[in-house]
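Anyone able to model this chain together with iron/sulfur cluster?
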Amino acid sequence: MSEATTGNGDGTTTVAAGVSPVIAEPPREKLTKKAITADHPTWCPGCGDFAVLAAFYKVLEKRNVEHEKIVTLAGIGCSSRFPYFVNGHGAHFIHGRAVPLASGISLARPDLHVFLFGGDGDGFSIGGNHLDHGARKNINMTYFIMDNFVYGLTKKQTSPTSPIGFKSKTDPTGAIDQPVNPMKKLVAGGATFIARTHAANVNHMIQMIERAFDHQGFSVIECLSECVEFFPDVFDPANPKKGGSFEVIQEKKWDGTLEDELRHDVTDELAAYKLASLPFPGVFGVFYETDRPTKNALEKKWIETTREKTSGASDLEILQKTFDRMK
Ligand SMILES: Cc1ncc(C[n+]2csc(CCOP(=O)(O)OP(=O)(O)O)c2C)c(N)n1
Ligand code: SF4
Ligand SMILES: [Mg+2]
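re: yes, here you go
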């Protein structure tokens, strides 16, 4: 019991004037899949995004995340419908603007787990610039990008990750532009956790989401997720169930062995860049991870220092002083 409260001996408590009462929380039940499952997903049967949702439910359940602390946000696209299917706080926002919305929420409420979901169009086209700034500022959130190499919701336009030659409504004779390489873009942008996975491999997706969840800072996962309607079979070469090979990055164990010298150092930016240069379907796993102060932490420190300097002045007094200085 805190100093501001007095037990009355009859189970009730008297709270000193001017002090907010501490409300005892009822015992918390374990988070279940049932509790976090919302509407039935409206994706086409066979869409890769179903498996992503299943993996996300699994992680929330496994980690027993506090239900009221889960926030899922998205822009616009088939993949961006994600927040509708998660029973928690969330918003389906403006096309490409999930990162700015999430930045405000993450900075104002650092106690929340901010998850973003979206597509290659939302993240690398219209939202590409926001992605870079979220990354360089290292704002705490986890961004899961379902990359299907096409604009699915708007029915087959060339996306920034569509390969050269892809025939779509915007490129009827085949795409001619160099596609974005998501891993290279994220390394150059300054994201502090960067991973790649595949919707056909649920266990690997779960591992990557858990690693991102544990990371403090701007974490991004690119997930190859097939659009069965407008770009079917494009990821077969990375899908063992369809005859492909799913090559997982072997991370260094720092055990001093000879074989460890060949393993990937996730803190090495250049090594991550080199991995990102491998031809399609490339490799899967954690490309890069570094420990850099988050904007959340830096901003908190700055506010505290300013508070100390203004020696307990109220917000109104600080505002008044600012106006006085401008006279
Ligand atoms: C400002 C604006 N421009 C364009 C659109 C149309 N639009 C909606 S979703 C989308 C692309 C979606 O592609 P992607 O992000 O890859 O998601 P997918 O549907 O493939 O999951 C576009 C161009 C829009 N809603 N708003
Ligand atoms: S159009 Fe493609 S991305 Fe959209 S729900 Fe259907 S299969 Fe999935
Ligand atoms: Mg897409």
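Residues 76-79, 95, 118-122, 146, 148, 150-154, 159 surround thiamine diphosphate (ligand 1) (CB under 6 Å).
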